[in-house]
Amino acid sequence: MKRRLLWTVSCLLIAGAAVVGKSWQLRRSAQQSFVRQCQAARQDALQFAVERAEYEPLQAVVKSGTTFSEMLAAMNFDSGTVYATTQAARKVFNLRQLRPGRKLLVTRTPQGALRAVDYHIDPEHDLWIERSGQEFDAEIKATPAAVQTVPVSGEVQGSLYDGVTAAGESPELAVRLADIFAWDIDFNTDTRPGDAFRLVVEKKEFSDGSDPAYGRILAAEYDNAGRVYRAVLFHDAAGKPAYYSATGQSLQKLFLRSPLPFAARISSHFSLHRFHPILKIYRPHLGTDYAAPTGTPVQSIADGRVVFAGRKGGDGNLVKIAHSRSYETYYMHLSRILVRPGQHVRQGQHIGLVGATGLATGPHLDFRLQQDGRFVDFEHLRLPPAQPVAKKDQAEFAQVRDHWMEMMPAAGGTKTASALAAPSSPTVQGGQP
Fold first, then answer.
1. How far is CA 136 from the centre of its chain?
2. Of 50, 388, 101, which is closest to residue 252 (Cα–Cα)?
3. Radius of gyration for the chain, computed over Cα atoms and rounded to the nearest angstrom
């Protein structure tokens, strides 16, 4: 009996020892597994950090005089990559148009090779370059934007530029509005305190936070000291977009009302008997002088062909342009000439810059207009407009006109925009209803 008890106790001790041993092995195995998992996690975290660092975009800000290639080289990319990327970009974009202050973003592969380049051209366009094997492909991408049709209104106390910015809009909108009415209003000289404007325009808001941009001006009105000018965007007989008055008359004429786009005053008028400030004698002044700072752009008032571009005595730097119907225009005292003889120019194209070359006491443009060999007074010239809305399109035009006019902000906060659909004043002329 005693011997059996000893045998049982021995068996239990042996079994217990086996259990303890097994437990210790399991614990040791678990500890080793845990250590391996910790080491793997640390390795994964380290690898993730390395890869993230490789993928982190490199950023450069364009500086004046810095080239596209130089910016890539400064990011430590090899010369072959820099060359291939630059050549790809040149196929779709003029790299001389890089603007100081704009950003260049470059992403890399985990191995540090150049993956893609993103350059913000303007609020609406990006230059995108992407690796494709050993080559690079480039394209101009449109920036995503939300387009809204918004009403805008304001009052002019000094200039149209000031009035538009006071209304909370960009100066670009002032230029666009002036272009629409450029055949009837000279915004350098015709604006008066209390003039009012209102319009409906497409406004683009960008997801990247860039300043808003403007699309089409769909309808506009400018009240110039009680004389109301109106414009509606429609299409001509060929289907091209054009602006018309509320009665369907074309706003476009043979000549623009000014050879300067903006901000100039008339310092001397057309005269057959004017005292010359330098020669100190009375003689005819067969043009109109516009006082403006040196470097102000000068535009051709109509389509035509340059017949002279160079220096000519007291006229200084002169551009002479021949137009249809035997008209010729002269642009004198320029600081710089931007066209060459024989070149065809468009209405509104910049052909030179204001200066004080030749017989001039200060920077200004001496502008002259000649018809059939005789100089005429440009300020009092009356020209017929282009073709009105075609008869077959008049019903469609009326529908478009009424739609956009209804969306315009009320004039003075009282008159409804719908009243604009029909002519209201017998005193308006030219491109006005």
1. 28
2. 388
3. 36
d(CA 408, CA 417): 6
Return left, alpha or beta for 381; rule: phi > 0 is left, psi -120 to 50 is alpha, else beta: beta
Q: Tell me the backbone φ, ψ of residue 193, rounded to 5 degrees.
A: -55, 130
Beta strand 364-371 pairing with 374-376: antiparallel
Count Cβ atoms within 10 A of the Cβ of residue 423 and give its class: 0-12 exposed, 13-18 middle, 19 or more buried. middle
Give the pLDDT confidence of 225-273 residue by residue, as tens digits: 999 999 999 998 888 899 999 999 998 888 888 899 865 778 788 776 5
What confidence tier does 422 reach under pLDDT thresholds 50, 70, 90? very low
Spatial separation of the C-alpha atoms in residues 416 and 263, rounded to whole Å? 32
Enumerate domains of the chain plus CATH numbers. Answer: 58-142 (3.10.450.350), 146-253+387-421 (3.10.450.350), 265-380 (2.70.70.10)
* pLDDT tens-digit map of 279-300: 555 557 788 899 899 999 999 9
Q: What region, left, alpha or beta, does residue 174 occupy, with left being phi > 0 and alpha being psi -120 to 50 degrees?
A: alpha
Whole-angstrom distance, CA of residue 335 vs CA of residue 298: 11
Contact 413, 421 (CB under 8 A): no
- Region of residue 241 (phi > 0: left; psi between -120 and 50: alpha; otherwise: beta): beta
